[in-house]
Amino acid sequence: QVQLVESGGGVVQAGGSLRLSCAVSGRTISEYNMGWFLQAPGKEREFVTAINWKSGGTYYADSGKGRFTISRDNAKNTVYLQMNSLKRDDTAVYYCAARRSWGFNTSPRSYDYWGQGTQVTVSS
After folding, report:
1. 102 class by beta-carbon count within 10 Å (0-12 exposed, 13-18 middle, 19+ buried)
2. For the segment 81-122, what is each residue's pLDDT rounded down to a tens digit?
């Protein structure tokens, strides 16, 4: 089984930056797709971005394009989410997830493993 642990959340001013980390352990993830999701209070979990571990290919939701960057470090078995120009509506719990498939998918139901989440709060 794959274990995912997020870190790096916190409180920032609007326009600021954060880098979230997702440490991966357990079975190999070399053939997995890794994703980041957010969930605001009272709302459904929403896709942010994903990366194919093997190829490094990425996909972004419109909300994060030009501001967010997903990357991975193979040696550290870690996925990152760099968030710049943060807005108040970015405030949410951010989750790391993994799925055993080749292509990208924006649905939370398609992902097999989840971290516990890390809180991001953007103030103004």
Report:
1. exposed
2. 999 999 999 999 999 999 988 788 999 999 999 999 999 999
For residue range 18-52, what is the model confidence (pLDDT) as tens digits?
Answer: 999 999 998 777 778 999 999 999 999 999 999 99
What is the C-alpha separation between 63 and 117, in angstroms, rounded? 19
Which DSSP category does 110 fall into? Answer: G
Spatial distance between the Cα atoms of 12 and 72, rounded to a whole number of angstroms: 24
Q: Angle at CA 49, nearest 5°, toward 47 and 54?
A: 130
Nearest Cα residue to 21 out of 95, 84, 80:
80
In this structure, the strands spanning 113-114 and 118-123 are unpaired
